[in-house]
Amino acid sequence: MATGSYSQVDPDLYPASASPGPSVSAVAWSAVTAGTVAAIALTIALLTLGTAFGLASASPWPGVGAHPTTFTIGTGIWLIVTQWVSAAAGGYLAGRLRTRWHGLHTDEVFFRDTAHGLLTWATATVIMAIVAVGATALSSLATGPVDVASSKEAVDEARKVAATFAAFTGLSLIVGAFIGSVAGAIGGRLRDRHP
């Protein structure tokens, strides 16, 4: 059982001769905000580009253009790539743009950079989710209720598609969080190579 206090610093990592700096927040919110803005802007740009590709490959004529299954798979892959690239760019910028921390152990700097990447990903994801929910709510107000008869098979198929979509979205978000965290650590490490 450990007898030391968590409020004391490890003397092996921080010798008594090292002077502690002023107590400031470990989170550089300006860097996180910059990374978040960049991640959201890149997401919008890539989604717009993906929409252009999708509209170019679709056709209103039967038998012409991409098959619906191919189109759906391509759309899913594009959305995943968009999320991962945006998380990487935002996390990298958050790590790279933060101020240099003097007098901290390398492990603590690595943790903070990783946390900055994760916070950037989380902030961008929450903002995009709020926008998506708001857009969905507004679009549902624009149309009147439609009475559509549905079979048991159609409802079951829709349930399976929704479950698959949710599983892939959740997995993609978890991987995106990891990518954003790693990118933050890489950006921070590169930032510390310069004064």
Mean pLDDT: 82
**Count the strands?**
0
Global morphology? elongated
SSE sequence, one letter per element: HHHH
Helix/strand structural class? mainly alpha
User: Helical residue percent?
Assistant: 55-70%
Question: How big a fraction of the residues is strand?
Answer: under 5%
Question: What is the gyration radius calculated from CA atoms?
Answer: 23 Å
Distance between the termini: 42 Å
Number of helices: 4
**Major beta sheet, specifics?**
none
Unreliable residue runs: none
Summarize this entry quickly.
The chain is mainly alpha-helical and 195 residues long. The chain has helices at residues 29-57, 68-97, 106-142, 152-191. Helix 1 packs antiparallel against helix 2 and helix 2 (68-97) runs parallel beside helix 4.
